[in-house]
Amino acid sequence: MAFDQIKLEISQLLTEMQNQPTDKHEIYLSLVEKLNQLKATGMPLPEDLVKLEHDLEAEFASEQREGE
User: What DSSP string runs through 35-52?
Assistant: First the structure.
């Protein structure tokens, strides 16, 4: 998949996240998938998206600990 296409899809995911914040888990999984595609092509990963991935992962882990 072309780098520009992956960037476009990530942009669409971020827009979805802003419009539908209750669907963060699905968007997180899609973001991880897109970042993995970028890694597979050898392209550099955007630092802001990597940070977003880590922030969401930490948020979900926190939610899971609170639910136990």
Answer: HHHHHHHTPPPPHHHHHH
Please give the Cα distance from 9 to 30 (Å, whole number).
Answer: 9
Token pair 């802001």: residue: 48
Which of 25, 35, 33 has the alpha carbon at shortest distance from 56?
A: 25
- C-alpha 42/C-alpha 34 separation (Å) is 13
pLDDT digits (tens, 9 = 90+) for 41-64: 898 888 988 998 999 899 988 888
For the segment 2-20, what is each residue's pLDDT rounded down to a tens digit?
Answer: 778 888 888 887 787 777 6
Residue entry with tokens 């476009």: 8
